[in-house]
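Re: duplicated header lines in exported structure tokens

Our pipeline writes sequence and tokens for each protein into one text file. With two proteins the header for the second block appears twice in some exports. Here is an export where it did not happen, for reference. First protein block:
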Amino acid sequence: MSNINNQTQDFYSIKGVQDLSHETAAAVSGGAALELYDNDNFGNLLVQTNEGTGNVGNDVNDRVTSIVVNEGTWRFFTDSQFRGVSADLGPGRYANIGLGIIPNDSISSFERIG
């Protein structure tokens, strides 16, 4: 409830105000649980997302070099449909995934696991 100018009003009674899930709110506000970049040190943003995918598509496939995990734990796979070599990453900034996490430029699918 809000009390503006001594008038009490329920925010949900205002047209256009709605309760959003945490994932939807993050996407609407410009935040994303996961960010994938083409270059090391977070250069050339490829995608921001709150959802996994069994096939990242041609624009992203085998191009990911750095990752930012803002929320959750994610599993990344070298092949589509959640197959191949995998690695799990929790919240953090990974400037170059090729340094022991998963081969650089090899991600083809990913999913949120936690």
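Second protein block, exported in the same file:
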Amino acid sequence: MSERFAGRLADVIRRPLITEKATQALELNQYTFEVDHRAAKPDIKAAIEELFEVKVVGVSTMNPPRRTRRVGRFAGKRAQVKKAVVRLAEGDAIQLFPES
């Protein structure tokens, strides 16, 4: 685990991503999260295991290029996003939608 997130593992995970593809991956026990773009795979694994008390089998990450955005004559860049697909051990699950 890198020293950047030592003691602050909750800062690694930003939010779960709920897309059609991510919802289909839930059947395969794979969960998709938006993570800090500086986080490495061991950081992501440690954060998920500590926050949700589950066993992580594998972590896949995607770091797509930043998108440019125009508003009138002003051009800028969107925030950098890194996605992580986390595969959990058989029998483990994360409750993304709390029951009310």
